[in-house]
């Protein structure tokens, strides 16, 4: 059963990683840790798919919860003045060449603007624009009502436009 | 409005394309050793010890002062037992001892 599940999870790995990255405020190292923990939970059977939603929605919800747990642990780690994870920096940025400097700037502006949104707004916008979910699916991942998700979506979008307008 | 959505969609697509440049493989992620930190556990342990100290120390101090209080208790009527000449009752006279004590020069 686990090998079937592993295949299904592996098939959505790119999407999962991108969502983990979004949940970890674009810290690649933390995203890797979170996603590894999620995969081990799923493969060990500690997280069980009950079929009430699609596998992808369920997996995204597990990633989101695990990232939240990781954040709390990181907060405890900071109590000892020891960083649990590195902060996003040049070293944690993805390697690869940019097509143009302009694209890189736009991307950076978006990442910074997203960082300034509330967590809910950021999550809804990432799910809708980045992962191409519907608002209803996003509500399922976040475990909130569709009306609430729609409100976060509209307010988040308005604020994002404002922030991007300021930045450009 | 729609135009602005298209701009957002374009920006998110650029971000997505960048992110996909360097995604570790599923097998590599599952198979690698876990990067666990003991810092959170130590922080929790330190927090528990600090809370226990704050809660228990005043209690222990209270128990000790209570014990001292019990040991030093005196009956409120104890002073009535002290009468003039009560020292004589507590000492035993000796036959060879003289009642006259001369101070030695």
Provide a descriptive summary of the structure in words:
The complex is a heterodimer of chains A (168) and B (105). With 168 residues, chain A is an all-alpha fold. Chain A contains eight helices and no strands. Chain A folds into two domains: 1-89, Orthogonal Bundle (Rna Polymerase Sigma Factor, Chain: A); 96-168, Winged helix-like DNA-binding domain superfamily/Winged helix DNA-binding domain (Arc Repressor Mutant, subunit A). The model of chain A is unreliable at 82-92 (pLDDT under 50). Chain A is globular and about 50 Å long. Chain A has helices spanning 2-11, 13-23, 28-44, 55-79, 101-115, 119-130, 135-142, 146-167. The relative contact order of chain A is 0.11. Chain A starts with a helix and ends with a helix. Chain B has a domain at 38-69. The relative contact order of chain B is 0.03. The mean pLDDT of chain B is 80. Chain B is mainly alpha-helical and 105 residues long. Chain B has helices at 2-19, 26-31, 39-71, 86-90. Helix content of chain B is 59%, strand content 0%. Chain B contains four helices and no strands. Classes of the chains: A mainly alpha (168), B mainly alpha (105). Chain A binds chain B through residues 9-10, 13-14, 17-18, 21, 28, 32-33, 35-37, 39-40, 43, 73-74, 76-77, 79-80, 82, 84, 94-96, 98, 103, 106-107, 109-111, 126, 129-130, 157, 160-161, 164, and chain B through 4-5, 8-9, 11-12, 14-16, 18-27, 29-30, 32, 34-35, 37, 39-40, 42-44, 46-47.
The most extensive interface between chains reads: A-B, 41 and 32 residues
Poorly predicted regions of chain B are none
Structural class of chain B: mainly alpha
Average of per-residue pLDDT values of chain B: 80
């Amino acid at each position: 059963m686990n090998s079937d599940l592993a295949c299904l999870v592996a098939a959505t790995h790119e999407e999962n990683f991108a969502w983990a990255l979004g949940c970890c405020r674009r810290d690649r190292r933390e995203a890797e840790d979170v996603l590894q923990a999620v995969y081990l939970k799923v493969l060990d059977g500690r997280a069980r798919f009950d079929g009430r939603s699609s596998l992808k929605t369920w997996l995204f919800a597990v990633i989101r919860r695990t990232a939240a747990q990781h954040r709390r642990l990181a907060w405890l780690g900071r109590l000892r003045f020891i960083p649990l994870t590195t902060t996003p920096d040049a070293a944690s940025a993805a390697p690869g060449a940019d097509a143009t400097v302009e694209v890189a700037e736009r991307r950076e502006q978006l990442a910074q603007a997203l960082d300034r949104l509330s967590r809910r707004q950021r999550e809804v916008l990432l799910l809708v624009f980045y992962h191409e979910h519907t608002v209803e699916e996003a509500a399922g991942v976040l475990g909130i009502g569709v009306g609430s998700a729609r409100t976060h979506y509209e307010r988040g979008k308005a604020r994002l436009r404002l922030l991007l307008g300021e930045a450009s | 409005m729609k135009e602005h959505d298209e701009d957002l969609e374009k920006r998110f697509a650029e971000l997505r394309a960048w992110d996909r440049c360097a995604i570790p493989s599923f097998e590599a992620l599952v198979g690698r050793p876990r990067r666990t930190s003991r810092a959170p556990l130590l922080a929790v342990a330190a927090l528990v010890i600090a809370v226990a100290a704050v809660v228990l120390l005043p209690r222990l101090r209270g128990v000790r002062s209570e014990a001292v209080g019990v040991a030093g208790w005196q009956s409120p009527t104890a002073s009535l037992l002290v009468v003039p000449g009560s020292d004589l009752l507590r000492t035993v006279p000796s036959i060879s001892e003289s009642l006259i004590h001369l101070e030695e020069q």
